Amino acid sequence: MINFENELKKFRPSLEIEDAEEIIYNQDLDDMADVLVSLIKDAKAEEASRHTRIRS
């Protein structure tokens, strides 16, 4: 039979997994709300720019 206590004592996490985990958690990723807010800001800025060009 497998002795789970001994197996757990021998366990060593893979270095690649630890490196990948650190890289993933340190990423500053935008969620969909951030993307939508950015798109709306860009659209408003573009619209304001068009109005300025039309008035000139």
Describe this structure as you would to a colleague.
- The protein has 56 residues and is mainly alpha-helical.
- It has one domain.
- The protein is built from three helices and no strands.
- The longest helix is centred in the C-terminal third of the chain and has 24 residues, at 32-55.
The fraction of residues assigned to DSSP E strands is under 5%
Give the low-pLDDT segments: none
Overall morphology: rod-shaped
N-to-C order of helices and strands: HHH
The figure for the number of domains is 1
Count of distinct strands: 0
State the separation between the terminal residues, measured CA to CA.
Answer: 84 Å
Radius of gyration: 26 Å
* Helical content class: over 70%
Query: Class by helix and strand content?
Result: mainly alpha
Give the integer mean of the pLDDT values. 85
Summed up, the helix count is 3
Which sheet architecture does the biggest sheet show? Answer: none
Brief account:
With 56 residues, the protein is an all-alpha fold. The chain has 3 helices and no strands. It has one domain.
Q: Helices and strands in order, then pairings?
A:
Elements: H1 4-10, H2 15-25, H3 32-55
Features:
3 helices, single chain, mainly alpha, rod-shaped, 56 residues
